[in-house]
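Hi P.,

Sorry for the delay on this. The queue was packed all week, but I finally got your sequence through. Input first:
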Amino acid sequence: MKLINIGFGNIVSGDRVVAIVSPESAPIKRIVQEARDKGLLIDASCGRRTRAVIITDSDHVILSAIQTETIAGRAGAKQDAGLPEEEVTGDEGK
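Then the structure:
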């Protein structure tokens, strides 16, 4: 199981993440409001401005104060360019 740090000591399971999106567009704001109404919203922004919205496969919506690109980088660091993990990390043969 891959865990992703989303800031302020909060961690989510990378296996459950479907999308990491910017909160600026009207459709995403609507998704956040619907999740709030259904009780599926998790606010992990610690009172700061929301910079990323994480959508999970269980329809939970998580708000984070960390930039979308930063979270995506943490989530996919070893999966960039479709390379095997050994080639990305330089751990081959060790």
